[in-house]
Design a protein that fits this description.
The protein is mainly α. The two termini are 15 Å apart. 23% of the residues are buried.
Length: 74
Amino acid sequence: MTERQKYLRLLSLVIEDLPSSAVDTAVRAGYPASTTMLNNVRIARVMNLTHLVALIGYGLPNYQIPAELLPATS
């Protein structure tokens, strides 16, 4: 599965539950991406799986991301 496919599948699982406040929470906590970038990731304007995983961590901390949808490690 490509990173884009993983992103789209993961977003489809969390889109209804992922609060917009996750972006602000991530930025305030020092996550190294801008508010604009994270908002664009949350609404699928920019497809970045790493940022989406981080947003889920800040917005849905108890959500267990399926291992097959996590970003590939180099």
